[in-house]
Amino acid sequence: MASAEIAAEHERILREIESTDTNCIGPTLRSVYDGQEHGLFMDKLEGRIRNHDREIEKMCNHHFQGFVDSITELLKVRGEAQKLKVSKTKERHEQRYMQCRLQQRNIATTIDKLTHCLPGVAFRAQYYPALCTLEQLEQSCLPKAGGYRFCAIMAENIPVLRTHIRDVSMSDLKDFLESIRKHSDKIGETAMKQVGLCVFSAFAGLLQGLLGIVPGAHDLVDFSPVYRCLHIYTVLGSRDTFESYYRKQRRKQARLVLQPHSNMHETLEGYRRYFNQIVGFFVVEDHILHTTQGLVNRAYVEELWEVALSKTIAALRTHSSYCTDPDLILDLKNLIVLFADTLQGYGFPVNQLFDMLLEMRDQYGEILLKKWNLSFRQIIDQDNYSPIPVSTEEEYRRISGQFPFQDPELEKMSFPKKLPFSEFVPKVYSQLKEFIYACLKYSEDLHLSSTEIDDMIRKSTNLLLTRTLSHCLQYAIKKKNVGLAELVQIIINTTHLEMSCHYLEEFISNITNVPPDGVNATKLYGTSTFKDARHSAEEEIYTNLNLKIDQFLQLADYDWMAAQGGGQASDYLSDLIAFLCSTFSVFTHLPGKVAQTACMSACKHLSTSLLQLLLEADVRQVSMGALQQFNVDVKECERFARAGPVPGFQGDTLLLAFIDLRQLLDLFTQWDWSTYLADYGRPTCKYLRVNPHTALALLEKMKDTSRKNNMFAQFRKNERDKQKLIDTVVKQLRNLIAAHQS
Question: How does pLDDT run across 439-475, given as a tens digit for each residue?
């Protein structure tokens, strides 16, 4: 063949190779091997391959950057697509769930129905031919055979055989009843697990369809004895007898199932076994209801359930009342919900169970209050009643995360610094949030609206605030050995907790999705709780200050017969003033009015106590020297008041606490009786605050002193004149008192 022809042939073969499907390329390759110049063709093939490689490389280089850009875009889109997929999955969540559940139920029903047919088929293969044969013998064959003896014997044995078949089937039925009694717990457990799985996963039905249906009652118990016995009794004309026997036995078993163990309340497992048995019982009855024709009917099953429901609720009320553990109550509530949902799935009404759960909510709330009472008491007992020191920004942020506290001025200060409140505040606030979470947990799955849940949580939280926490705060305020510094810190703590109440309102709204400003929204009573506690602490401060003042006054040791007074204040009073100065310096963090009220209250009490000390019945005599020393002490008190131990008083307002004493002492030390008697009763009287009874009582003490301490006063004209003057003043005071009394 000429070289041109060979080249043309090779070119044709190459085009055929390039265009032919690989499955049909065999003949083409055979023509290559059969032809001539095999080596020349191979060279040409190699060349063609290199050309194609260059074309492919050129094309790849041309599109490479576009490919890279496309991959980059795809990576970006993948993340968005994933988000979109999740979103769409959630949107289709309920629909797919319902479809899967419906498919699962249809599959289970189909399998169940087919399974139920098998015992009937088996029965017909075993017993039905025998019964038919007996009937055929009795009705047809034996009468035709005539009066032979063997016919008579066979006729006599037919009833015996029927009775035997009936007795065998009844024995099987009794074994069946014993079997379902033993397996009720397992059947109920399986049914509740199936419902629990469906609640746990929205795609549980699909998963069960893929992985295998959860075993039903027919998987755990062989129901063929019931069907066999029912059919035999029906054929024998004794169906009513069989139905009556079956229902009677099942009622007996129901009574046993509904009788709880005496220690059921001790563990959750006790309740679980109780519920499993009840569910198992009614799952079997539901199975019998749907797989037999009239052995049990809907009215019978509903009657059984009505009795079971009332006894179950009564048992739960009794046994749950012993529970003091909120976690056990919460677990029991979840178990009751699962129990109710399971039976509701079989068509049984369970509203009364949910009503009972609402009753248990109150019990749960009371148990929570007791638990939180212990928590609050522990926090109070462990608190050091000192501002929290913070050394680093991390510590500051940690505490700010526990308690919503904002103080721009404090934030500007450098570390280390102190927060105004003690550890009591963030711990109590955290406990309040934990309590709200605990209330929310109980409200889940009770078929309540968001508004009902919100209302329940707010009412429970109000009980915690107004009853439990309020009592604990009173305990902290009234307990023994509580000092003024602790009371001051309690006031500061309750002030900050009061300011945080609106954050609690927002916290509840966020978890219930109910706005706090709704028309029917229950408001938290936290503000009034903390305000009342603060007022109580303030009163306790006033009382404790007065007690401290009384303790110092008990150390007073005046020489009531002193000839003249000293130039310095008494030691007990100097110590008392030093104590008051130190105490009021701690009041700097208190609200201004509280500090001012405490200071004024202390000064008034001191003034009143000093006057009572002077007029005390045990003090029978008071010399002018003693009165002068007493005057020095009162001046020391006035210097303390004038120095302004607490800021905020206008002018000499604090001095007014000692004005009664001051006017009384001025009257006696200046012996200004003519002015007092002449101006008494006038609004502008110099000694307006001096009560004539008080003046008379003190003057009587001084009159006795003049008489007893000056034995020779009658021989001294000046003393006699002074005594006459005292007697005259005493007489005038008595006349003044008598005139105003009349």
Answer: 999 998 888 888 889 989 999 999 999 999 999 999 9
Handedness of CA 630, 633, 637, 642 (dihedral sign): positive
DSSP letter, residue 620: -
CB-CB contact of 603 with 641 (8 Å): yes
Backbone angles phi, psi at 389, to 5 degrees: -85, 135
Phi-psi region of 631 (alpha: psi -120 to 50; beta: other; left: phi over 0): alpha
CA 606, CA 595: separation in Å to the nearest integer?
16
Cα–Cα distance measured from residue 295 to residue 302, given in angstroms and rounded to the nearest whole number: 14
Question: Quick one: tokens of 61?
Answer: 């280089």
Question: Amino acid identity of 232?
Answer: I
Please list the helix, strand and coil fractions of the chain in percent, rounded to the nearest 5, in that order: 80, 0, 20
User: Biggest alpha carbon distance in the chain?
Assistant: 184
Q: Distance of alpha carbon 690 from its chain centroid, rounded?
A: 62
Q: Which of 288, 286, 287, 291 is nearest to 305 (CA)?
A: 286
DSSP 434-503: HHHHHHHHHHTTS---HHHHHHHHHHHHHHIIIIIIHHHHHHHHHSTT--HHHHHHHHHHHHHHHHTHHH
d(CA 161, CA 159): 5
The separation between CA 36 and the C-alpha centre of its own chain, rounded to angstroms, equals 95
Q: Which residues contact 400 (CB under 8 A, 6 or more apart)?
A: 406
Tokens of 402: 């526990």
Long-range contact pairs involving 666-672 (C-beta distance under 8 Å, separation at least 24): 667/695, 668/624, 668/627, 668/698, 668/699, 668/702, 669/624, 669/627, 669/628, 669/631
d(CA 230, CA 244): 11
> Alpha-carbon distance 248 to 589, whole Å?
79
Q: Distance between alpha carbon 711 and the CA centroid of its chain, in Å?
A: 84
- Site of tokens 């209302």: 455
Residue 220: CB atoms within 10 Å: 18
Using the Cα atoms of residue 504, residue 510, residue 515 and residue 521 in order, give the sign of their dihedral: negative
> What is the helix (H) or strand (E) element at residue 221, kind and residue range?
none
Please tell me what DSSP assigns to residue 390.
E
**In the structure encoding, which two tokens stand for residue 338, read together?**
């699962």
Segments of the chain with pLDDT less than 50: 116-125, 199-212, 214, 710-715
Query: What tens digit of pLDDT does each residue of 518-563 get?
Result: 666 778 887 888 888 888 888 888 888 999 999 999 999 888 888 8
| SS3 track for 623-683 | CHHHHHHHHHHHHHHHHHHHCCCCCCCCCCHHHHHHHHHHHHHHHHHCCCHHHHHHHCCCC
Q: Whose CA is closest to 365, among 232, 464, 225, 239?
A: 464
